[in-house]
């Protein structure tokens, strides 16, 4: 029996150690000969061999998994797949980690998560694939069921979360509205009011008190108030002296944060947690309640107003009023729930994106003073071209829309900032029919697709060897701003789902940046850590702590001289 056991173990020995086996056989035989007195070594042999077997298997698995890295971009481990690499990436910088893998894999790779989770998707940063998905075969790549489910409680059937007719109807109506003169006037007027009567006084206060401020927080307040004015026709007053906490804003922020957790949690688990009201799902439910209380109140009040005005829709040109005046295919008015979804989606679209983009822009300027100088010479020249250029405390300089339009270098610097730090760093789609990408990648029906916008800004194959440098000049020809293909510069998406607020966002960012830079030097507090936060939008994780220094007229005159 002993010998059979030995024979059994022999072929499984990692190194095929026949000499060891024969030694063992003899030692066992001698053990038997010694009047059935079994040597104590005998008891340990099976354990030793199991250990050897285990080690051999381990070595095999490690070698096999690591070998896959060459072909698949990352080691693929049994059961957990590429999860260990993802966990390691999350601990450092998720977006840089994805960029590194994509660069090694020439722009596309398949992430294989644990077999028991939904963490399986194709990730690409190849502009040819992105054009194929966003434009050429648009209808074969909807947002899809998986992502819609995860975002349903917060976004409902709003534009970000809808496909097909539900999306089309909102897109068409909103597009007409965004391009109407009435809406354009509302955007410029509300922005002027917010910048000159809220933002600049808050900044001036910080200078008077020599206090440092979190510029990202202030910009988030500004865009939140602004987009609520456009979507609801209501001013929540987030950006006011003393920077008050507004329950709706807090609920909205908490709801977006809690929603993201669903993307890294297996569906069954988050659904069970939702059912049982546990952890982040409980937080999500509470915060959505806060959002809904505000939305319901606004919708109710607006309905009353419109009934009182009976027929005359008044002077209002916000999105809520426009959608309230429409009917669905059955000739019915939209339900309150649908109106709520429309508004919440527009707030998400317009709130975080431009404020976060401006925050990265001010950080990049702090590190690239040459670029700041060139912006200042441009805006001083434009201000200097006025007949009534003299301004003072009573009559401060307010940039006019036609002046903002002329700020080509500033637009180039903002685009360059968005290229390196896109507000939406990754976006997603679902594959509804088997297909082959232009780069040869085969994608099967049901595959989740992620396009890595942040990584695209770091691909030499797209932007050249200096892709990691902040160079607004790459956007200029003869000092004029030249836009890029949406499939190379995907910060605003592309194809039929191109960002509807793109023109407004550029106007808003240019107006805010020029109004601040003309008056203050923005200095980032020394050693303040600036890293991205993992969220739907790419916030700076610890905010942007800055000190402002007032500019005097002589400084501005110097910049004007440079420009001449
Ligand atoms: C720097 C600022 C902005 C950036 C980088 C940006 C980026 C984007 C991106 C990447 C998308 C596609 C999202 C997706 O489908 O998953 C998008 C869609 C959209 N954006 Fe923007 N956005 C900005 C500002 C704004 C503003 C200020 C508004 C409105 C006030 C706005 C309104 C929209 C709308 C309505 C959509 C949905 C379009 C559709 O699905 O048909 N965006 N934006």
Describe the model.
The longest helix has 33 residues, at 40-72. The chain has 564 residues and is of the alpha+beta class. Helix 9 (181-208) packs parallel to helix 21 and helix 16 (369-384) runs antiparallel to helix 18 (408-420). It is built from 22 helices and 11 strands. The strands form 4 sheets. The protein has a 4-stranded mixed β-sheet, sandwiched between helices. A 3-stranded antiparallel β-sheet has the order 3-11-10. Strands 5-6 form a two-stranded antiparallel ribbon. It is 57% helix and 7% strand. The radius of gyration is 30 Å and the shape is globular. Bound molecules: protoporphyrin IX containing FE. The site of protoporphyrin IX containing FE has 25 residues, from helix 8, helix 10, helix 15 and helix 21.
Throw out a few tags for this protein.
four-stranded mixed beta sheet, binds protoporphyrin IX containing FE
Which consecutive residue ranges, at least 5 long each, have pLDDT under 50?
A: 1-36
Helix content: 55-70%
Strand order of the largest sheet: 1-2-7-4
Largest beta-sheet details? 4 strands, mixed
* Gyration radius from CA atoms, angstroms: 30 Å
SS-based class: alpha+beta
Strand content: 5-15%
Counting DSSP H or I runs of 4 or more residues, the number of helices is: 22
How would you describe the shape? globular
Which hetero ligands occur in this complex?
protoporphyrin IX containing FE
The tally of beta strands, per DSSP, is 11
Mean pLDDT: 86
